[in-house]
Amino acid sequence: MTGVKAVVFPACAVLCVLALLYRLRDLRHQRDDPALCALLIAFFFKGISFTLSTPSVSRAVDARLGVADLGALGIHLLGGVASSAAFLTAIVYWVYPPEVARRRAVVRLLVAALCAVAMLTMWAAAGAEAQQRSAHYLLQNAHRPLVAGYLLLYVSAFGAGMIEIIRLCLRYGRVAGREWLRRGLYCTAIGASACLVYCLNRLLSLIAVQCGLDPLEWELLTPVANGTGIFFLVAGLTMPSWGPQVSQWRRLVRNFVTYQRLHPLWSALYAAVPDIALNPRHAGRLARFLPGDISYRLYRRVIEIQDGLLALRPYMDPAVAAGARRSAEEAGLTGDRLDAMVLAGLLTSALRAKHDDRPPVQASGALGPETAQDGGYPELVAWLLHVARAYTAVRSTEEMEEKVR
C-alpha cells in the first residue's frame, strides 16, 4: 500500500502544481477576481497535502521538525478542511452574484476556520499522549477518543464541503449558459463525489476499528479515491479556461479535414473554370496542406465551388439528370445522398462537355446547387461534402469502366 501511495500522491501533487501554474498566468489580468484567488489557494494547499501524503515525505517532515504526526495534521488541515473551503469559495463566486457570493464565502470560511482550530486542539491533546509516530495516523489511533473525535471533525468538514460542491455543480450546471462552464461544473461534481467516497471510507474505518476489523485491508481505496477526485477537480475547475481553446482547435481541425475532402471537387471545377479562384497561388498541390487561416480558406473554397457549379450550369443536361436519378434510386439512395449523386452525374457530364467544347444545353430544369440545399453555411458545407463524395464515386466508377474497355 505504501508503494501505491508513493506513486499516486506525488503524481497528484504534480497535477496540482500544473493547475496552479496554469491559472497563475491569469492573475496578472484578474488580480481582483476572488474566484481565481480561491482556486489558486486551493490548488496550493492541495499540492502541499499530496506532497505530505507521500509516506517518505511525511516521515521526513516529522523527523526533521521533531514533532510526531505533524505531517498527518498538515494533510488533514490543508488537503481536507482548507482546500475544500477554497474550492467551494471559487464555485460560490462562479454561480452567485458578487454580493451573495461574498456573504456565503465568509460563512463557509469561518466554519472551516473553527473546524481547523478544533482539529488542531484535538491533535495537540492526542499528541501529548502518543508514544511514537504513527505510519497511518487515523487508522492506527481511531480507537482513542481524541483521535476519533478529530477524525469525525475532519470527515465532517471535508465531506460537507464536497457535498455542497456537488449540490452547487449539479444545480447550476443545468442552467449554465457557457458550454465549457457547464462541463466543468459536472466534471467538478464527479471529482467531489470521489473525494466524498474517501470521506465515507475514513468514517467506515472508525466504525471498523470499533468492531475489531482492520481498515488497512481496504486502504487501497484511499489513493484511488483521492487520485480520481483531484483529477476531475483539476479538470473541472480549469475547464472554463482551456475548454474554449479545445473547441477552437477542434473547429480548425474539422475545417482542415473538410477543406481536404472538398479538394477533388474544387480541383475539377478549377481545371474547367480557373476564374473561380480568388487567389491562384492557393491552387498549388502543396498549398492545400498549409493550415494557415484555414477557416477563411474553407469559406473561399465553398464560394468557389458554388461559382464553378453555376458556371457549368449551362452544360448540365436534364436528360443526364433524369438518368442519374433513376440509377441512384435503383441503388437505394434517398434524400441528400440521392440529390448529391444526381448533381455529381450532372457535373461529370458538364465537365466533359466543356472540355470537348460542346455548345451549352438549351433546355432548362437541371438540378442546380441553389436548389439542392437549404439553411446556412454549415448546411451548405455538409451538402457540398455529399456532392464531393458522390463526385469521387462517379469518377472512380468511370475510371474503372475505362480500364475494362
Could you give a short description of this structure?
With 405 residues, this protein is mostly helical. The protein folds into two domains: 2-242, Up-down Bundle (Rhopdopsin 7-helix transmembrane proteins); 250-404, no CATH class.
Overall average pLDDT: 87
Regarding CATH, which class of the largest domain?
Answer: Mainly Alpha
The CATH H-level superfamily of the largest domain is Rhodopsin 7-helix transmembrane proteins
Helix content: over 70%
Distance between the termini: 73 Å
**Structure summary, number of beta strands:** 0
Strand content: under 5%
Oligomerization state of this entry? Answer: single chain
What is the CATH topology descriptor of the largest domain?
Rhopdopsin 7-helix transmembrane proteins
Shape from CA axes?
elongated
Most strands sheet? none
Flag low-confidence runs.
366-372
Structural class: mainly alpha
In DSSP terms (H or I, runs of 4 or more residues), the helix count works out at 13
Walkthrough of the structure:
The chain is an all-alpha fold and 405 residues long. It folds into two domains: 2-242, Up-down Bundle (Rhopdopsin 7-helix transmembrane proteins); 250-404, no CATH class. The chain is 77% helix and 0% strand. The chain has 13 helices and no strands. The chain has helices at 2-24, 34-53, 55-65, 70-95, 98-129, 137-141, 145-173, 179-210, 221-272, 294-311, 318-330, 335-355, 377-404. Helix 1 (2-24) packs antiparallel against helix 2 (34-53), helix 2 (34-53) packs antiparallel against helix 4 (70-95) and helix 11 packs across helix 12 (335-355). The longest helix has 52 residues, at 221-272. Mean pLDDT is 87; it is low at 366-372.
